[in-house]
Amino acid sequence: MTDQTQNAPRFGGMNTAAVAPWVIAAAFLLVMPFIFTSNSAITIMNQMSITIIFALSYNMLLGQGGMLSFGHAVYMGVGGFFCVHIMNMVEDGGLPLPLPLLPLFGGLFGLGLATIVGAFSTRKAGTVFAMISLGVGELIAACSVIVVAFFGGEEGVSGDRTYGLPVFGVEFLQQIEVYYLIAFWLMLSALLMYLFSRTPVGRMANAVRDNPERAEFLGYSARWVRFYSFCAAGFFAGIAGGLFAINYEILTEENLNLTQSGAILLITFLGGIGFFFGPILGAIVFTLLQTVLSLQTELWQLYLGALFVATVMYFPGGLAGLLMMHAPALRSGRAGRLVLPYIKTLGPALIGVLALAGLIEMTFHLRHASLGDHHMTLFWVDLDSHSLVPWLVFAAIMAAGFAVMRRNLPELLSAWHSANATGDRS
Amino acid sequence: MDLILVNLIDGLVTGLLLFMLSAGLTLIFSMMGVLNFAHASFYMLGAYFAYQISLFFGFWMGLLIAPVIVGVMGAGVERYGLRRVHQYGHVPELIFTFGLALLIEELVQFLWGKNQMPYAVPEVLHFTAFSIAGNSIPAYKIFMIFVSLAIFMALLFVLTRTRVGMIIQAALSYPKTVEALGHNVPLVFMGVFGVGTALAGVAGVIAGPVLGTFPGMAFLLGSIVFVTIVIGGLGSLWGALVASLLIGWLTTFAASYNVAFADILTWIGFTMPADLDDSMWRDLWTLTMPQIGPILPYLLMVLILVFRPHGLLGKREA
Amino acid sequence: MTAMMQGGAVAALEMQGLRKSFGRTEIIRGIDLSIAKGERHAVIGPNGAGKSTLFNLITARFAPTAGRVALHGQDLAGMSPFQINRLGLSRSFQITNIFPKMTVFENVRCSLLWSMGYRYSFWHMVGNSRALTEGAEAILEQINLTARRDLPAGVLSYAEQRALEIGITIAGGADVIMLDEPTAGMSHSETDYIVDLIGKVTQDKTLVMVEHDMGVVFGLADRISVLVYGEIIATGRPDEVRGNPKVQEAYLGAALEAEH
Prior knowledge:
Oligomer: heterotrimer
CATH class of chain B: Mainly Alpha
Number of strands of chain B: 2
CATH superfamily of chain C: P-loop containing nucleotide triphosphate hydrolases
Largest sheet of chain C: 6 strands, mixed
Largest interface: A-B, 46 and 49 residues
Distance between the termini of chain C: 48 Å
CATH topology of chain B: ABC transporter involved in vitamin B12 uptake, BtuC
CATH architecture of chain B: Orthogonal Bundle
Low-confidence stretches of chain B: none
Largest sheet of chain B: 2 strands, antiparallel
Number of helices of chain B: 14
Shape of chain B: globular
Strand content of chain C: 15-25%
Structural class of chain B: mainly alpha
Radius of gyration of chain B: 21 Å
Radius of gyration of chain C: 19 Å
Number of strands of chain C: 12
CATH class of chain C: Alpha Beta
Structural class of chain C: alpha/beta
Mean pLDDT of chain B: 85
Distance between the termini of chain B: 38 Å
Shape of chain C: globular
Mean pLDDT of chain C: 87
């Protein structure tokens, strides 16, 4: 955070600029429960915070170290399982551990597991690393039904956070108390992970990602650089696991398996792996999408999958990359020129996409609704999925939406060029 | 003794099935450097397409047509998806194929729902070929073995005896040179991807009736296939064969011999704790071989990686 | 190690009976060469002579089929690149090999980290070290890239990227610097510029440089070895080598003919 500041006078003043986001984020976290007071909102925010830590930890591997993991859930999961067991030991009276410290132990167990696995898996990056992470992840996930004493078999293991010692009178009976506990760990972990990226080994992780051979001729073993990043990522995943244990008080096989590992890859990539704040964005957007979409449609995973594939193909920088593309235009003060063209292209495009989704929903209804059930509700309208009219209407709206978008696209492109070209010259 | 013979046949069926997937995967990987995470999804598509076709035209048309459709889809994915992502590097390619695997599973659920399809063995092959000491061997298993073997013969022939095969082999080692000689390497890539996925499709068509045709079938078999090619050595076709058969037999034998760990531990010289329910090692004592069968491939992979990082027959460091 | 002794001084770099085959083709056919400390040595030869192979053998990127390479008397067999680097050898690559997504400053700073003792530290902030920042800035000054400090290295011009690579190569303070065709693909003026730069930044260091063109290294090298078909046919001072009839026949003659 204090990168190239204190001692380099010509960057003086950047200090406040670098601290500002953290202060704002902390203030935001403090205030949020007063704006969204309902229990369900706090539940969602808790889930979001835990996902942010997990996604940031995942990006230590993928974004900063160039290691694609298909088994990162294991480190969060194992950290969480250990925390539930510790919680139960506290409950049985054997252990005087205050609850707020529990995530630290989750982190240490995540670190321990990552040390063991990293010893042989970080030899290479790329495809080989990915395959090993997949194999190890599946191995541990499969173990969960075998080692019943630790993983609890099919039902998982559960505990109760409220039986521990009260901390300053707080017993963590209420969600709001848990919220602030998680928020504290979120700030701490995010800050530590950011600082890690500014350390020598964090910088070299970038170098090894870009060009392992060159890094080796600078005196660094690419393998050990990867190993340290891997351990650190395991540690923070473990912290996320500890928080998960506190928040949900139960861990099951689902916390370990490939679905979970795949989800965090999806979240991180959607958010953008090229910037530190990308995974944060990804976690927030994904949690909201998941909450909203899953209430509206059975097919939300299909849409999410399509969004993911489209992101990989067309916007490999993710959401953060898309936002940062506008930085030059914003800096030169020309971003205003983009607003109208954006509305004129993205508006119709959105309508087109919604109409397409309508067609997909109708197809699904047509195929899978019980016999004789012809009625469905789509965008607050009751319609008959077996009659031709709604199909024609939606198809027409979709065609019109995409046609308008195509017509206005050149305008957007030229606005884009003018906003950025002038920015370059000035 | 008879049981061993039965297990040998069962393991061979599983192993050959695995090889049909790992062969295509290896071919694609060694040519393009892309590990196709969605490979098993094409296997699943093969099964579903064949089921759909069999409803109208019977099993045999499914066997004929479904792999072709899958292969064309695979070629399309290479042409319009992978080739685009290729410019970003291998890791984004892998992420792309992973996303594709997710998407295909969702699409299959969208079209066919979450339940298992009643895709069944054709009537003609629904009989017992022969029995070994009371264990009947269904004709369909023999049919599976023959189909897989026939396909490998054909593959081997194409790779070693034909012009296309020569180009493929050359492109494997020297893609730049082959391009310089005037061969259309992108077309060769697309073809190999198509053929690789079509092979996975064939595997799906013939495995669907016995292993079940349901949306989870891709990920269930997929991770085992990846483990197989890591064990065999990434990029080695013979390694893939050896590893496939090894895993086929390993899992089959583990599943059929109900050896309890308690016996092994007692045999080594440990004594079983009197109050097993309170013991920390309860799980270790109550384990049986069929229980740990499914994780044996993963264990094997970890051991291979620790002691022989190149894989069994791989030349590249794994 | 005693074999390395030559008049009491250990050679900076010593090759003995070095051979390398790829399949049935022998590319390097027995090379014995000793490069003294502080010497600027150029290996030249026509295309396909095995220059790059020799270079990669010395830096242990390839394992030799036979023979050995010693750095300051220490055998390099079986060592990893990072171990060799820590012994004081630094190399550049024929194809520009930098960290394209990191800034120019970051590129140089990363190459300083190990030599300044940071190792695998995760308790220092790189931005807090005045020595690190100043060291990197000094290198940038030397390679005239101060103005490009905060650009991603990938957007620099070709000649600038080559200069940056030389900067990365020397930054770690290694005393044996190996450059693989540092002027490949450059115009005349760019070549002169880079050669000047090399002379400037490798003062008091041992320099081993592989080049295609003898003219480039004539003013720079103390000694030149001529590599033809995997064998060194002559080693000596630049004027000696130029006058050597064997060299003229095998290499310069061909080059001159091609030029005229």
